[in-house]
Request: fold
Amino acid sequence: MTAVTLSTGKNGVLIKCQANGHADFSKKGSDIVCSAVTVLLRTAMQVLSQSEGVALNADTSSRGNLAFCVEVTVDKPETEFCLKYTADFLREGFKTLSKEYPQNVSFTEVVQAGN
Reply:
């Protein structure tokens, strides 16, 4: 099972996201659930890496584990909007995956103090 944890601030901004484990829906190389998790995370990371005012720290060092955290480098309304929207995108994507494939994906959101 892939366990996904999304961490947000009280104001809804994305702080970090991590996915651990393998979905085990199908064999390696043809697992659609694993692919969906990967596409959600990599798309979010790509958008954030191109966003002004955001620094992205990612760990993709081992297969089956992907984590990233964000740091605001320029505090502007546009930056906050980007981080809220990305959190919404990930939340909805992983909620849907965990409902459709409950044996393969678990989703947890942690709201951290501050922000």
